[in-house]
UniProtKB/TrEMBL annotation:
The keyword Cytoplasm applies. Keywords: Cytoplasm, Gluconeogenesis, Glycolysis, Isomerase. This is Glucose-6-phosphate isomerase. GO terms for cellular component: cytosol. It comes from Alcanivorax sediminis. It is found in: Cytoplasm. Belongs to the GPI family. The active site is at E356 (proton donor), H387, K511. Pfam families: PGI.
Length: 547
């Protein structure tokens, strides 16, 4: 076990970093670039189809060296080793965190590949039109019913990859997602679908999440009504439901037949689970070969993270840059801005990955921390965000770190040739906007003309730091590398901060209180004793409902 180390803020290296930040605070990115033509070369890294440029961060060589020393002082090498040796790194749940193990080759991880094999058999039956509904129809629509990690990862990746060609000779079903607890998505999706040709994936690591179980129950009733069968009918369950979970017992209790159960394990955290059978919607989109490519890309990033010195290590450097921004430059928010619309759901995925992992204020030893941890993360497709919140990035009062993502190659054989030239032009336009925005944020009005004399309301002060990530292309392989990069970045930050990124106790108590509140809503008289706001709101709703 890696020895615990507290007292981060009283360490020498921490004070040196604080001093460095104080010394550098008057530096402007425009001056840093003007003074050093090689800045990009020194502050950018490339690996596995990804280029990470952090030269537009407010960082100097001296600051960078100190951050690397901080990583050493926090025993980063031992922690990475502990993660990849399957040690218990999630102490509050007494578990290892072996999501990386899902990307290991078959000879190293036979158990994992056994489940992948079962998933492949199901995926291929669906894609070949051999999986039949209870009345003999081929499946045209698959609905993933899940929430959190059982929704955000598969949704993001399936959406990102859906413009690639369907696997040759196979018919890709339409894949839908239903997560929202209030039934708004499931009711909408069901309105459009035919029960005879619809298959549901009930995805839940715990198989206790009420959001998912209620959506699954609604789907089950809908199927039973539409097919004229009992909701407990064995063939209805066999032909229309696949379960994906770490709890075979609970899947069986709910009604998933054993042949339709895909398993993963306690040592895979929900938000790290898209590499397991939870990723089935991705496999239905790109085929099993594509899914295995995504695993291979992630595995490549695992190897990179384990082997490269910190200065050459993309996830480590991205983590250290974030620590610099958050803890030394006092930048408490990061905007994720993909300039490729296929990455539309990446911000929501990262919101969970980063904020559920590192939104912690207690150290691994159980003591309150006296420094900031995870910033607020939000985002939007970049060009759309330009017309929404970029005003604040350019002229607001907050310092905000931005993360730009763009793809080098895009439209190829996957579009009709008549529109190829136009679409290539649109891709170039989007990339030009990405470069323009990161340049303007960094340099301010000096990006256009240093001699401009502008009225105050037209000025751009710049010096807003950003990182740009360029993907060679948005293939399953490169997407796999990108996502594994983020996972490791989150882990490295947690090591620096001395917190556990693999639990999520902060989401538990709300679930308990919600059970009480359901009672209050059914019987508003039982609200007496609650705080006046909750009591009045429950009463107000009851009045409006005529109760
Ligand atoms: O409530 C938070 C959470 O536990 C997430 O960590 C998880 O991804 C999500 O709920 C869904 O959990 P499950 O896959 O067990 O339904």
């Amino acid at each position: 076990m890696v020895p615990e180390q507290d007292f981060l803020t009283i360490s020498t290296i921490w004070s040196q970093l604080a001093q460095r930040a104080e010394q550098d605070k008057s530096l402007h990115l425009a001056d840093l670039f003007a003074a050093d033509k090689t800045r990009f070369d020194r502050f950018s890294l490339e690996c596995s189809g990804l280029l990470a440029d952090f030269s537009k961060q407010r960082l100097t060589d001296e600051g960078c060296d100190l951050l690397v020393k901080l990583a050493d002082e926090r025993n980063l090498a031992s922690w990475i080793n502990a993660l990849f040796s399957g040690e218990v790194v999630n102490s509050t749940e007494d578990r290892s965190a072996k999501h990386w193990f899902l990307r290991e080759p078959a000879d190293k991880a036979p158990l994992v590949h056994e489940q992948l094999g079962s998933m492949a058999a199901m995926v291929n039956r669906i894609l070949h039109g051999h999986w039949r509904g209870v009345l003999g129809d081929a499946i045209t629509d698959v609905v993933n019913v899940g929430v959190g990690g059982s929704d955000l990862g598969p949704l993001m990746a399936a959406f990102a990859l859906q413009s690639s060609l369907p696997p040759e000779g196979l018919t890709r079903p339409r894949v839908h997602f239903a997560s929202s607890m209030d039934g708004s998505q499931v009711s909408q999706v069901l309105q459009e679908l035919n029960p005879r040709t619809t298959l549901f994936l009930v995805s839940s690591k715990s198989f206790t999440t009420v959001d998912t179980l209620h959506n699954a129950n609604t789907a089950r009733r809908w199927l039973a009504r539409g097919l004229g069968l009992s909701p407990d009918d064995d063939s209805l369950l066999r032909c229309h439901f696949i379960g994906i979970s770490a709890s075979p017992e609970r899947m069986t209790d709910w009604g998933i037949v054993s042949e339709n159960q895909l398993l993963f394990w306690d040592w895979v955290g929900g938000r790290y689970s898209l590499w397991s059978a939870i990723g089935m919607p991705i496999a239905l989109t790109v085929g099993m070969e594509g899914f295995r490519e995504m695993l291979a890309g992630a595995h490549e990033m695992d190897q990179h993270c384990r082997s490269q010195p910190w200065e050459q290590n993309i996830p480590v450097m991205l983590a250290l840059v974030d620590v610099w921004n958050i803890n030394f430059l006092d930048i408490r928010a990061r905007a994720v801005l993909p300039y490729d619309g296929r990455l539309k759901h990446l911000p929501a995925y990262l919101e969970q990955l980063e904020m559920e992992s590192n939104g912690k204020s207690v150290s691994r030893a159980g003591d309150p921390v006296d420094y900031d941890t995870c910033p607020v993360i939000w985002g939007e497709v970049g060009p759309n965000a330009q017309h929404a919140f970029f005003q604040l990035l350019h002229q607001g009062t907050q310092a905000i770190a931005c993360e730009f993502l763009m793809t080098a190659r895009r439209y190829t054989e996957d579009v009709h040739s008549e529109s190829l030239a136009e679409l290539e032009g649109q891709h170039a336009l989007s990339n030009a906007n990405c470069l323009a925005q990161s340049r303007l944020l960094a340099l301010g009005e000096r990006a256009l003309d240093p001699s401009l004399a502008l009225p105050s309301y037209k000025r751009y002060h710049g010096n807003q730091p950003s990182t740009t990530l360029v993907l060679d292309e948005l293939s399953p392989r490169v997407l796999g590398s990108l996502l594994a990069m983020y996972e490791h970045k989150v882990f490295v930050q947690a090591v620096i901060w001395g917190i556990n990124p693999f639990d999520q106790w902060g989401v538990e108590m709300g679930k308990v209180i919600a059970t009480d509140m359901l009672e209050v809503l059914t019987d508003p008289d039982s609200a007496a004793g609650l705080d006046s706001s909750s009591m009045a709101l429950a009463q107000h709703i009851a009045n409006k409902q005529g109760k």
